[in-house]
Design goal:
The chain is α+β, with helices and mostly antiparallel strands. The chain is 30% helix and 37% strand. The chain has a single domain (6-138), classed as Hotdog Thioesterase (Thiol Ester Dehydrase, Chain A). It has three helices and six strands. A six-stranded antiparallel β-sheet has the order 1-2-4-5-6-3. The radius of gyration is 16 Å and the shape is elongated.
């Protein structure tokens, strides 16, 4: 991560769980990612949330043995509580990605999917949630 996503590495963001359907990324509130309100800066949270969806997309692209373009085309976020301590962002929608890639292979057309990521603090309280719209298209070789 240091070489491919240095800001993610510096922020302390780490993938802590990954399987075919879900990914969990943790990020800890610290001096480097704070805002003036004694909580984690929204962009640091968004970066961790996007990573929880993007890692699933990259994994499924690798599993498809195809070249697939991927791009976030829209994003929304909702902030419910102050993000302090360790926040775990999780996405459990890996099945949507496989379906979209298979449909793109069949039709030759790009597919758009929405993946959701929830941020949960150490007390089990949801502090934020994000929705990422991913555009996926299998490239012709």
């Amino acid at each position: 991560m240091f070489f491919q996503l240095p800001l993610g590495w510096l922020s302390g963001m780490r993938v802590t769980f990954l399987d075919t359907s879900s990914c969990v990324v943790k990020i800890k509130y610290q001096w480097f990612n704070q805002n003036p309100f004694q909580s984690m800066f929204w962009a640091a949270q968004g970066m961790a949330a996007e990573m929880s969806t993007g890692v699933l997309v990259m994994q499924e692209i690798q599993n498809s043995n195809r070249k697939v373009s991927m791009l976030v085309t829209h994003q929304e976020g909702n902030f419910l509580k102050k993000a302090t301590g360790t926040i775990k962002y999780s996405c459990n929608e890996g099945d949507k990605i496989q379906e979209a890639i298979q449909k793109s292979i069949k039709t030759g057309e790009g597919q758009v999917i929405e993946l959701n990521s929830k941020g949960i603090n150490e007390s089990g309280v949801e502090v934020a949630n994000f929705q990422f719209q991913w555009s996926l298209k299998v490239k012709n070789i």
